[in-house]
TrEMBL record:
Keyword tags: Signal
Transmembrane segments: none
Keyword Transmembrane helix: no
Domain Lipocalin-like, residue spans: 36-112
Signal peptide (UniProt feature, chain positions): 1-22
Keyword Signal: yes
UniProt name for this protein: Lipocalin family protein
């Protein structure tokens, strides 16, 4: 009887330890469809903190993202991004993304041929000021113990 109770207790503990997602996965289809297409980042700003240096998405300095091209496909949540600035490292990659009901933009930068479920690191940004031809992604970073916004301004390319 003790073995049966012990096994039941272990089983309950194993099945109750399900990992929880950091971000809500319920999609905001309207916002997703609105960003479908090709976009360019026209500026990267740090309101109130113009003197900081930010390594965006662990790829390059945030200023290297000005002029970068992004393609978002809303029906399968895939896309591509590429840095195009001549004085920055060359970089391009497939991405996977979605916008959830809280207005959060969830982004994973993939290596060629890699599946999104194999990528453990992703980024959660907030969508702001969304129109038909522009939107902003806002990242929050810690600078000296103070949370600071990094604002990526997107402009529709086509």
């Amino acid at each position: 009887m003790k073995k049966l109770i012990f096994l039941a207790a272990v089983a309950v503990m194993l099945f109750s330890c399900k990992s929880a997602s950091v971000a809500n996965t319920q999609l905001n289809r309207d916002s997703q469809v609105a960003v479908k297409g090709e976009w360019t980042i026209t500026s990267v700003n740090y309101p109130g903190s113009e003197v900081i240096k930010v390594n965006s998405f662990q790829i390059a300095d945030s200023k290297c993202f000005v002029g970068s091209t992004w393609k978002f496909i809303s029906n399968n949540n895939k896309g591509e991004m590429a840095l195009t600035s001549y004085d920055c490292p060359a970089f391009s990659s497939p991405i996977t993304w979605y916008i959830n009901k809280e207005g959060q933009f969830i982004l994973k930068v993939l290596d060629a041929g890699e599946k999104a479920k194999k990528v453990r690191d992703g980024y959660i940004l907030n969508v702001a000021n969304q129109t038909e031809t522009s939107f902003q992604l806002v990242d929050k970073i810690n600078v000296g113990g103070k949370m600071t916004d990094v604002v990526y301004q997107f402009q529709k390319s086509n």
